[in-house]
Design brief:
6-stranded parallel beta sheet, 5-stranded mixed beta sheet, 6 helices, about 25% helix, globular, oxidoreductase, NAD
Amino acid sequence: MTTRVAIVGVTGTMGRLISELVDQSEGYRLHAGLDSRSPLSDMLGADVVVDVTLPGVSQSVVDFAVDNGIRVLVGTSGWSQARITTLERRIRGREDTGVVIVPNFSIGSVVATAVSAMLARLFDSIEIVETHQAAKVDSPSGTAVRTAELIGLARTELGPVSAPHNDQRARGQQVSSVPVHSLRLDGVLARQDVIFGGAGETVTISHNTLSANAYKRGILLALDATRTAVGVTVGLDQVVDLGLGTPPTPPAAIVAVAAEPNDFDSIPEIDADSEVFE
């Protein structure tokens, strides 16, 4: 059966990439492509909605879709743990809709995050440095937040990481006790380094995205999972079995936050050129 896909944010970098993949992939058909001037009602009739907009827009897209019984794949960052939890409560028990939230579609990035969560049990000194192109509007990145949360989960019995002098602004933003440092630079697409410090040694887990091709396989895997999704699933690692013993996401982390109420019936203006990969 062919899955009808509506892409919200179709004029952005990720939107164009996903549109091409849908056109090229058997079993999918582009139902609608929505830009900043499109009413959200244009997605009606789709089986799956893909949201690749902006953090300030994503909530209204997801709300409209789930209210109309459409499953959603979210590729937009900015979904905090609180928002995820609220969304999970909202759609709990419903069989006609589901939401898959993917901070990063790159398989390599997901593997790097999983390995970082494994190492978190062995080192107390851990920090994250994430670098993205200058146009990325939010920080820290969704990938960095996801990585820090999984590190925190892995250390549930060990306690928070060692983060001295964290009252100083230059020490980064703490997420699940992990200091996260965000760089926004020209000449970069996406890179993340998770640095572990121990007695007489350091270990760095790095992932560097060189082109948008890195996202293609993960997008198709996430689309396939979204077709039958129920409830809220966070992370490509919850869709693909990496076989690395990644700590499972607890129920509270598998749902999304309801931002403040809004009455959007169309998409606010989106600068397509400002859309940035995770």
